[in-house]
């Protein structure tokens, strides 16, 4: 397996334990141990208000598994995953390389604790390649520069943006970020995305969750369907189009324990660049 190290040594990266981070909170929701008291504190507040959140997190991750498996089945052999999060098996490259052992995957995240676990992300097949870049999602130039060392952008790439963009508001350039990434992709590439939405819950509940994230110093922009659809302008959505996470090809994966009485609270879609 071709393996490249992230640009920045782990020892030089400072992990901010004074404020929560979405990747570490997501790890806590999934039952992981790579988080800090500040992440657990906000996580517990959120779960006390909405006990289904851990199940919702697992439903979101299950969508990522199904979508990755489906896109690999369409012949795509290159994946760029931005907003990777802390490794939880199976990781995206394991799902892709199960379908296509020669798949090449580049991960990206901005939390140093993810970098500290990059070694776990870099174990793949002998035929494929896996790499990791430490960068902010908004720094698309740096991400693309690094990704081009592993991926051939003259050929189709699957761009995975899972549970990422609701942490970036319109003023943070969320739409511009996606447009820059889409522009770099060759025809035949795919965009895989999930995004929290207020559409399936009472507005007062959605506002309460926004306020709780804001109190923790985090942005949470819960976009409705029309605003989510804007990310896919110029692309051709695969069936069934924009749907809730649990409604996207459930036959491609295993049910998530506890999901029977829970709504994912997220829109998802997989779309092709013509």
From TrEMBL:
GO terms for molecular function: methyltransferase activity. The keyword Transferase applies. InterPro entries: SAM-dependent_MTases_sf (IPR029063), SAM_dep_MeTrfase_SAV2177_type (IPR006764). Keywords: Methyltransferase, Transferase. The keyword Nucleotidyltransferase does not apply. One of its GO terms (biological process) is methylation. This is Methyltransferase. It comes from Streptomyces cyaneogriseus subsp. noncyanogenus.
């Amino acid at each position: 397996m071709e393996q490249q190290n992230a640009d920045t040594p782990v020892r030089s990266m400072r992990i901010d334990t004074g404020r929560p981070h979405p990747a570490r909170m997501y790890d806590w929701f999934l039952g992981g141990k790579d988080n800090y008291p500040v992440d657990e504190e906000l996580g517990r507040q959120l779960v006390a208000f909405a006990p289904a959140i851990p199940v919702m997190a697992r439903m979101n991750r299950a969508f990522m598994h199904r979508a990755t498996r489906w896109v690999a089945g369409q012949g795509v052999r290159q994946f760029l995953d931005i907003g990777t999060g802390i490794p939880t098996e199976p990781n995206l490259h394991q799902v892709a390389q199960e379908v296509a052992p020669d798949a090449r995957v580049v991960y990206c995240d901005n939390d140093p604790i993810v970098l500290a676990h990059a070694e776990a992300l870099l174990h793949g097949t002998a035929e494929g390649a896996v790499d990791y870049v430490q960068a902010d999602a908004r720094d698309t130039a740096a991400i693309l520069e690094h990704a081009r060392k592993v991926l051939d952008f003259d050929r189709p790439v699957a761009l995975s943006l899972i549970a990422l963009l609701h942490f970036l508001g319109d003023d943070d350039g969320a739409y511009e970020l996606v447009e820059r990434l889409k522009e770099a992709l060759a025809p035949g590439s795919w965009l895989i995305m999930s995004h929290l939405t207020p559409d399936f819950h009472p507005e007062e509940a959605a506002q309460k969750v926004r306020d709780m994230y804001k109190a923790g110093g985090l942005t949470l922009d819960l976009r409705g369907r029309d605003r989510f659809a804007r990310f896919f302008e110029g692309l051709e959505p695969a069936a069934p189009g924009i749907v809730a996470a649990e409604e996207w090809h459930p036959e491609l994966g295993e049910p998530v324990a506890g999901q029977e009485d829970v709504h994912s609270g997220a829109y998802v879609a997989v779309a092709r660049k013509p």
